[in-house]
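Figure S7 source data.
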Amino acid sequence: MAYNAYITEQRIEGADEGPLAGRTVAVKDNISTAGVRTTCGSAMLEEYVPPYDATVVERLKEAGATIPGKTNMDEFGMGTTTETSSFGPVENPAAEGYVPGGSSGGSAAVVAAGDADMALGSDTGGSVRCPAAFCGVVGIKPTYGLVSRYGLIAYANSLEQIGPIAPTVEAAAELLEVIAGPDDRDATTRDASEALGAGAETAGTGDGDGGYDFVSAADGDVDGMEVGVPTELLDGADDAVVEQFWAAIDDLEAAGASYHEVTLPSLEHAVEAYYVIATSEASSNLARFDGVRYGVSGGYDGDWNEAFARVREEGFGPEVKRRILLGTFALSAGYQDKYYRKAQDARAWVKQDFDEALEAADVLASPTMPVPPLERGESLEDPLQMYLADANTTPVNLANLPAISVPAGETGDGRPVGLQLVGPAFGEQAVIRAGSALA
Ligand code: GLN
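Tokens for the predicted glutamine complex:
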């Protein structure tokens, strides 16, 4: 298959009528589909077939969408390049020889290649926005609690949200309208208008049947909008990326927006805090893959400890093992205060910095990724380099805020650059509006 973007190509038909009738929506392979295998890009789950649909999949079917297949991804969502999949790397349709970004690289690639109209990804620390930026398409990471995670196989549940990837802001908003809204089966979901309180401008009530109105926010009207630019997210970014970033800010200004620079000192610690929290949660979440309950079996021969070790040795790839080790260490007695607690303090500080900055701005803008798409293979040898590439996306997950990535030109050698716009909690309309002025 083109670009190795699908792990499983199997059509799931939706209802005959609905807002997405006649449209195809590819689904990342960590989102459960009843009767269709769901691997998380891992050998551990190569044969795993879920008995139920994720809430977002139910909503897609009700909305009339056709799911053409399940998309390739970094193993369990752990990566920034879609090279850690046990099903092989995904190619970037928009920049040959370069990675498509990750971890939802398959979802962004099928949209960029025109193989699907839209796609769902999941974003724990940038996995919707990064591949959208690298493949030259649009991706939205919703406010934590806007979209149900029921049926999303967890990597780091306090950070992640399922989000849409599409060729245009309007199409991404359309898909978000279908999947958003409270779900009895995920107690962390909230109704946006309730969360914002009476009198606030909201997108309506989310009941999963189109009650939200995100599409009408894609009107490109940024006249009078105030854009904050956190300087920390420009420091250290590649020159070619910074150049495209300012060109996009010029475009917003020309359309009537104003901008000011702002400093958010906590952001310097965000990647470190993110990797401590994400790996800690992962070490706990992935304990369920023990060869008994899910996935491949370790072959019991009289010693459960050995069977357990064997199945995890065989079933998990090197990046997943590294993260389980890191997370287990960060949570271990004696180190918990030193790492996990400190990371939680940093998370609170990041949230506070964003809240303050968003009092004086409608949205905050930065490059989505500080670097253009990397060459394939470049970061596999150097995990730290890969982690640092998440500097601009991970703070948003720590703060539970909504963000969009829209195409913002390309580097001199034709690699796509993305612009990230971050809004206040349940302020999806603001980021959609600002993004629609550009793409
Ligand atoms: N690159 C980040 C990580 O590897 C984010 C991944 C994601 O959002 N799933 O953890």
